[in-house]
């Protein structure tokens, strides 16, 4: 959902991920929330991101009918809200600029010449 | 959750250790924070099960209040690492999950309107003019539903006009007037504690609007230039609280 905001970068989404450490947090399952978000997110980007941080259970393609499957919802929930990049970096797909992630907080601040 | 209970929990949060005046870091008191979120939830249903972003979250008070009232996902954004770390430990203390991103709100770029509601106590622009309006501009671009924001009462007319005319808000209403108590935080504060009159605003966001980035970019930074213009304006308190 975050995209690269450097001046002159046209296609800053999705950001690539460099992993140093991933943590899992247990979060209560909320079906309505997942249904809501499903229509808003780019599925391929989520699949790629999950894969990079080591979770490969998500199907390549997804459509709204799959939201009736509890198994699918559980996987979606896990990938979306329970897996966190604790240490590493987000990388702009166009410029290669790295945005470091420390203690789970991505630093998207730009240098003066990037604004 | 009862209002008093919410206020009590927020009162237990850690606040800025070394507040930075250039960022206008003033803690959002539990009184104001609890009322802002309580109104958003109980009068408008803008919190529970929603994705909420806290712009300029500082130590996370507003965002955590949203999480306590059942927001499904909360994201806190701030430019200051120290604040984000305090906010993150506040979240841990309350056993709440909240995501944080370090960024300059003015340069924030988000794909799609994933965020439903933005809550914020922006810098009022006493150090950098128009800082609060810059926040509001971006918030209205990001939120699919509503933006709750605090602004100095003296800028009421300016906020309303700018939100409706330049920022494409569908509506911009003052929900109530509150007292923002400013404790003696910085050396230049001569009095022990002062009250500043602030308005709690609800701006309805235009979800379907296709933003024309370039045209609107020029509007950022226009600032609260007609501050004080409406001295003596009707200060009637609305009864939404």
Number of strands of chain B: 7
Put simply, the count of helices of chain A is 3
Largest interface: A-B, 27 and 24 residues
Give a quick account of the main beta sheet of chain B: strands, pairing sense, barrel closure. 7 strands, mixed
End-to-end gap of chain A: 20 Å
CATH homologous superfamily label of chain B: Vaccinia Virus protein VP39
**Multimerization status:** heterodimer
What proportion of the residues of chain A is helical, as a percent range?
25-40%
Going by CATH, the architecture of chain B would be 3-Layer(aba) Sandwich
CATH class of chain A: Mainly Beta
Kindly report the average pLDDT value of chain A. Answer: 88
What is the third-level CATH name, the topology of chain B? Rossmann fold
Secondary structure elements and pairings:
The complex is a heterodimer of chains A (115) and B (241).
Chain A: E1 16-24, H1 31-38, H2 43-52, H3 70-82, E2 83-91, E3 98-102, E4 105-106
Antiparallel strand pairs in A: 1-2, 2-3, 3-4
Chain B: H1 3-11, H2 30-42, E1 51-55, H3 61-68, E2 73-78, H4 81-93, E3 99-102, E4 117-120, H5 131-142, E5 146-152, H6 156-165, E6 171-183, E7 193-204, H7 213-217
Please explain how this structure is put together:
The complex is a heterodimer of chains A (115) and B (241). Chain A has helices at residues 31-38, 43-52, 70-82; strands at residues 16-24, 83-91, 98-102, 105-106. Chain A has 115 residues and is of the alpha+beta class. Chain A has a single domain (16-103), classed as N-terminal domain of TfIIb (Single Sheet), CATH 2.20.25.10. In chain A, strand 3 and strand 4 form a beta hairpin. A seven-stranded mixed β-sheet of chain B has the order 3-2-1-4-5-7-6. Chain B has helices spanning 3-11, 30-42, 61-68, 81-93, 131-142, 156-165, 213-217, and strands at residues 51-55, 73-78, 99-102, 117-120, 146-152, 171-183, 193-204. In chain B, 29% of the residues lie in helices and 21% in strands. By secondary structure, chain B is of the alpha/beta class. The radius of gyration of chain B is 17 Å and the shape is globular. Chain B has a single domain, classed as Vaccinia Virus protein VP39 (Rossmann fold), CATH 3.40.50. The A-B interface holds A 1-5, 12-13, 25, 27, 30, 32-33, 36-37, 40-42, 81, 103-110, 115 and B 49, 51, 72-73, 79, 81, 84-85, 88, 97, 99-104, 107-114. Chain A: One of its GO terms (biological process) is rRNA (guanine-N7)-methylation. Chain A: One of its GO terms (molecular function) is protein heterodimerization activity. Chain A: Pfam families: Trm112p (PF03966).
């Amino acid at each position: 959902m975050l995209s690269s905001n450097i001046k002159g970068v046209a296609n800053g989404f999705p950001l690539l991920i460099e992993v140093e450490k991933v943590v899992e947090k247990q979060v209560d399952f909320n079906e309505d929330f997942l249904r809501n978000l499903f229509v808003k997110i780019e599925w391929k980007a989520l699949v790629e991101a999950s894969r990079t941080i080591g979770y490969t259970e998500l199907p390549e393609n997804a459509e709204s009918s799959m939201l009736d499957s509890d198994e699918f919802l559980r996987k979606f929930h896990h990938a979306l809200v329970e897996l966190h990049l604790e240490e590493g970096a987000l990388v702009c797909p166009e410029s290669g600029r790295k945005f470091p992630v420390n203690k789970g907080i991505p630093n998207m601040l730009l240098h003066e010449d990037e604004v | 959750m009862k209002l008093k209970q919410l206020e009590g929990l927020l009162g237990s949060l850690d606040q800025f250790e070394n507040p930075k005046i250039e960022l206008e870091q003033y803690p959002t008191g539990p009184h104001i924070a609890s009322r802002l979120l309580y109104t958003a939830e109980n009068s408008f249903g803008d919190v529970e099960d929603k994705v909420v972003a806290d712009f300029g979250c500082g130590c996370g008070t507003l965002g955590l209040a949203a999480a306590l009232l059942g927001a499904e996902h909360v994201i806190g954004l701030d430019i200051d690492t120290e604040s984000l770390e305090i906010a993150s430990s506040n979240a841990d203390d309350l056993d709440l999950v909240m995501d944080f991103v370090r960024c300059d709100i003015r340069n924030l770029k988000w794909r799609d309107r994933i965020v439903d509601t933005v809550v914020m106590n922006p810098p009022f622009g006493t150090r950098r003019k128009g800082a609060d309006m810059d926040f509001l501009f971006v918030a209205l671009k990001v939120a699919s539903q509503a933006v709750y924001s605090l602004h100095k009462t003296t800028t009421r007319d300016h906020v309303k006009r700018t939100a409706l005319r330049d920022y494409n808000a569908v509506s911009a209403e003052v929900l109530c007037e509150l007292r923002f108590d400013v404790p003696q935080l910085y050396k230049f504060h001569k009095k022990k504690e002062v009250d500043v009159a602030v308005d709690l605003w609800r701006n309805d966001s235009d979800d379907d609007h296709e933003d024309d980035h370039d045209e609107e970019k020029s509007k950022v930074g226009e600032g609260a230039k007609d501050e004080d213009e409406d001295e003596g304006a009707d200060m009637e308190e609305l009864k939404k609280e």
